[in-house]
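Mods, move this if it's the wrong board.
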Amino acid sequence: MNNVIDTYTVASKELTMGQKVGQLFMPPAFINDTEEEVQKLEELIRTKHIGALCFFHSRASAATNFEGKKKVVYNENSYDRLKGLIQRYQSAAKIPLLIAIDAEWGLAMRVENTPQYPYAITLGAIQDNQDLIYQVGRQIGMDCLHAGIHWNLSPVVDINNNPENPVIGYRSFGDDKEKVLSKARAYLQGLSGSGVLNSIKHFPGHGDTATDSHLGLPVIDKSKKDLLDNELYPFKKLIEEGVDSVMVGHLSVPSLDPTGNPATTSYAVITELLRKEFGFDGVIISDALNMHAVSKNFDEKGALETTAFLAGMDMMCFTEHPSESIEKIRTTASPERIETSFERIWKLKERAFANTNTKKQHANSHGNLNRQLAAQSISVVNSTPQLLDKARTGKFVNLSAGNPTANQFSKALEKEFGSPHLSLEDSNMAEPTDEILVLALFPPSVKSKNNFGLGTRLLDTINAVLEKQKVVLYLFGNPYVLDILELNKESHIVAVYQDFPEFQELALAHFKGEAPTLGQLPVQLKTFVI
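Not the wrong board. C-alpha cells:
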C-alpha cells in the first residue's frame, strides 16, 4: 500500500490541470453492463484520468430508471462480476480509482447474493443499544472492503419528518433529531472502524419533502432558524466530530438561497453555509447529477457540472457528460480553485489506500447480527393483550397477504398451532367472522410509490378485514404502510420491519410469548394515533 501512496506523491506533481480536473469526477459504473459499455468506461478512465467510480446494479436499476418502466434482470453472479470489473477499471487507471457505492443497508442495496442488514428505519426502532448499530456499520464496511470498495456513500442523516416523503422514508433513522444523530454517529464509527470512507447525506436535509428529487425539485419552505434547529442539526454535529465527506442533495431552500437554486448548484448553500459557516473542509460530493431535479435545467453538456463546481462542489457524482464537463471546468475555473478541490480528493485517496484492514475477519456473521437486531427492534404499535393472549391458545385463522420472498412465519404457525395457512387473496375472510385473524402482511415494496406495491383490490380486502374484525397484525415491512390501512384500536399491531428469516423467527417467538418487544416506532404515523 505504501507503494500506492508513493505513486500518488509523485503523480500529484506531474499531473496537468486537465488531469487534476479529471480526478474530481465520479461517473457511474454498472455491474451488469455490456462489454461495449465496459470498454467505453475503460477508455474514459484512461484518457480523462477519472478519479472515482460509483457502482450501480444496471441501467435498468433505480439509478437511471426513475419511472420504473425498465425491467431489472436478476443476476446471481453480480458480486463476482463487480469484483472483476473493479480489477479491470483499476487496471485502466494511471492513478488508482476511488471505488464508491451506496451501501446504506449493505452491498445488497446494489448487488444480489450479498449480506443485507436492516433499513435505517429498523435501526431507528432500537432503543439505547448503539453498539449493535456500530456493528452494522463495521460489517457493511468490511463487506465493502472485501469487494474492493473504499467509499460507502452513507449514512442518510435526513430527519424523516414528512410521512409522505417518497424518497427518504425507510432510509432515515427516524423523525427525532437526537436519535438520528446518535444512530448515525454509531454507524459512522462502525464504518470508520472498518477503514471505509463515509458520506453523510443529503445536505441540507431531504426529510421534509413530498417530491422525489429523481423526478422533480423539492422545495423546503422553512426558516433558517427552523432548519438549524432540526434538519441541519445532525449534519452540523457530525461535521464537528469529523466525517470524510458530505453529499449535497437536489433541494431548493429559499431561506438559504433566495434564488431558488438547487443546493447542488448553490454557492450560498455549499460555500457560504457548509464550507464557511459549518467549517467543513473535507470533500463535498454531489448527489447523482443525472437526477431530473437538476439535469433537466441544463441543456448544454458540461454546464451543470461546471455550475456545481463553481458553487463549491469537489466531486461530481454520476455525471452524464464527463468529457465535456472536464474541459469546461478546466477552461472556466481558476487554477487555484481546481487545485483546492484536487487536494481534498487526493487526501481522501491517501486515506483510502493507506487502509490495511482488508484481511481482518468479520467479528459477527450477518445472520447472527440480524438476529440480535430483530430482538431489539420489533415494536408493538397498538397493544390489545387480551386479543393476543386469546390467539395464543391456538384458536385463530392463519392469514397472510403480500409478496414475501419466503413466508416462514405463517408456515410455522400452521405447524405449531395446527391452523392452516391461508392467503388473504384466495380466501373469503373479508366477510365478518367471530374468529381472531392473525395476519402476516408482507408489502411487495418498501417504497411508498403505488401504495407500497399493494394492488387496489388487495388493499381494499386488507382494509375490509382490519376495519371490522379482530386482527393480530404482524407487519413485515415499512411501518408507513400503516398509514394506508383502515386500522382500529381493537387490533394488536406489531411492526417487524424486515422479512428476513431472522425477523420472522423473532416474530414467531413473540407470538408464542417467548420474546418481548423491545423496539419503539421511530416515526410518528400520519393517520394512526393510539
